[in-house]
Give the backbone structure.
Amino acid sequence: MITLGLQRQVDRRAPDTRSRADSASTATVHSLAVGRAVCIAAKQPRARATLALLGDKEFLFSASGQAFLMYRRSGRCFVAMGDPVGPTIEWSELIERFSALALSENGWPVYYQVEPKAMALYKAQGLSCLKVGEEACISLPEFSLQGSKRSRLRQTIRRTEREGATFEMIPARSAGSILEELKDVSDAWLGSKRIREKSFSLGAFDPSYLLRCPIAVVRQNGRIVAFANLWRGEAGSELGVDLMRYSDDAACSVMEYLFIKMLLWGRDEGYQQFSLGMAPLAGLDSQESVTLWDRAGAAVYKHGERFYNFRGVREYKAKFSPEWESRYLVSPGGMRLPLSIAAVSSLIAGRSRSTNAR
């Protein structure tokens, strides 16, 4: 009777009061899930796990709590960002449970930017693997500005510094005093490119997010004209670059200068690898077994400059002589494949939202 009485009291609350209480409870649960995921991500070698910091994804944890998948929903697609994060012994369980979760809600699983090493696990769930591009990875211990092949990079440093440029790495949580300057640069960059913030596979200009990442800045005559925030794997493993933004009045070589300096900083800090991110659709025309998807993707890569500078992105990253690693989209085949591709595109464009933990 006491329990029922209490329940009636709860039910008599105004609808907006119940809604606010439910929202606060959901936010608390999600915040705790983000915290759990960030703790796991900090112990992993791959820097992309830093995306857990964004707080824009749902999380599915393994039974042991030592690994997780981060994902978002778009229509009937449950889209995981990358492979599971955590010990590989936990991956099979998570992939199986993720498929079951999607199926239980009349949907299907999709994985974006996964690596080749786990293909057998996805195929065991009856899923198809499509190459969607190549990630540029640089071995930092081997990176140097010495030798004739690096003469262009040395020239870039000299030329940019003659124009008054200096480089500085701001530690995580230490950028509070320059956030307004960074926002000015970011707003100007978005405006000049006539684009809006992306999401899901990339970060956005969010102070609470940026303050948890090291930030590389370039000043020109004392004023910040370019910046990038870095993702970090566990100490000494991998660094990755996320936002990369600059002012219109910065030196023309400012971004190349910023990249060179970040690579040198990462090497000197003892990191082993630096990820420049993925070149979309790159490498589709070089596979021995060419599918219809490969032909379509290769055609867009070669002739789609009207929509996106696919070749330019790869050529820019090639300046730093990276190793190219294939990345895949994993999805059911048939008519679900184009729907899966559309769902991923929608998420990256920032047109789908959901945040719950399981």
